[in-house]
Amino acid sequence: MEIHTPLTDGVLRSLKVGDQVEITGVIHTARDAAHRRMADGLAKGEAPPIALEGSLIYYVGPTPPREGQVIGSAGPTTSMRMDAFWEALLPHGLRATIGKGGRGLALRKKMQEFGAVYFLAVGGTGALLSRHVKSAEVVAYEDLATEAIRRLVVEKFPAIVCNDVDGADLLEQGKAQWRRPLAAS
What we know:
Number of domains: 1
Mean pLDDT: 93
Number of strands: 7
CATH topology: fumarase
CATH superfamily: Fe-S hydro-lyase, tartrate dehydratase beta-type, catalytic domain
Strand order of the largest sheet: 2-3-4-5-7
Structural class: alpha/beta
Strand content: 15-25%
Number of helices: 6
């Protein structure tokens, strides 16, 4: 299913765990350092450097582009490191992120409370994912180099809904499906 940014509550509520999506529109990149700076600024009453309402943040620190490329390899980074930061950004309108790996239970409860969605991108596919990026520009925290916030225009960027607004978790469902009962002793 193709979805477009900015993401509306209606789109977010329509997504269910396991849905394969293709994202078209503007997304932003941010990793640990950028999230820390944004969260610290919000705690001090500062405005975020990007509009968070309807936005989607991709946890990536892309490599520099080669000649003729828009962006270098752009594979997802581990998401759980950003859990505390996303909790701080949820009240300010950030309702969707993309990364790899699972999210902690406390954040998943907050996501359900705020109607947020988490998407998985496949790790190890950074070169393939970069083909979906049509333009890239640094928009905040340039001093953070690869961890600067970038505005990406993407077309049919592939992702899978891992956590939906109802609190379902694709990774937990997968673990439960394959968990074997212990043999009786």
